[in-house]
């Protein structure tokens, strides 16, 4: 298979999309987890995602033109979205605990799980 622009654009890279706090300018921010500096923003999550994808397309184009290697997604580190249930009171306590740490629930639960199981 020829590793051209279409090849890289169709790989399953992880893109993180986050809401920007009003005090930081509001809107949405998206970035490619595996490529520092490949990011985008917008008024909506979709706009931010599209902006990041356009930045990635430009990045890949430059890398291909300069014949530099481009990392492919690492399946071992790929995030998996899960649905869990817990008491609302516990969710509130977690949110209150992590707010000053500037962590997401997911990041906090990952840290706790890795600490408990030694991963």
Automatic annotation (TrEMBL):
Organism, as annotated: Sulfurospirillum diekertiae
Alphabetical list of Pfam families matching this protein: HicB_lk_antitox
Name of protein: HicB-like antitoxin of toxin-antitoxin system domain-containing protein
Domain HicB-like antitoxin of toxin-antitoxin system: start-end pairs: 77-113
InterPro entries listed in its UniProt record: HicB-like (IPR031807), TTHA1013/TTHA0281-like (IPR035069)
Top-rank taxon: Bacteria
């Amino acid at each position: 298979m020829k590793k051209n622009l279409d090849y890289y654009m169709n790989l399953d890279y992880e893109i993180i999309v986050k809401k920007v706090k009003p005090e930081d300018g509001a809107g949405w921010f998206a970035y490619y987890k595996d490529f520092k500096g490949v990011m985008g923003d917008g008024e909506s999550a979709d706009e931010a995602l599209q902006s990041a994808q356009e930045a990635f397309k430009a990045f890949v184009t430059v890398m291909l033109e300069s014949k530099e290697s481009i990392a492919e997604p690492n399946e071992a580190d790929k995030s998996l979205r899960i649905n869990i249930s817990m008491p609302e009171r516990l969710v509130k306590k977690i949110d209150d605990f992590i707010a000053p740490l500037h962590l997401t629930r997911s990041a906090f639960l990952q840290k706790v799980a890795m600490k408990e199981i030694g991963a």
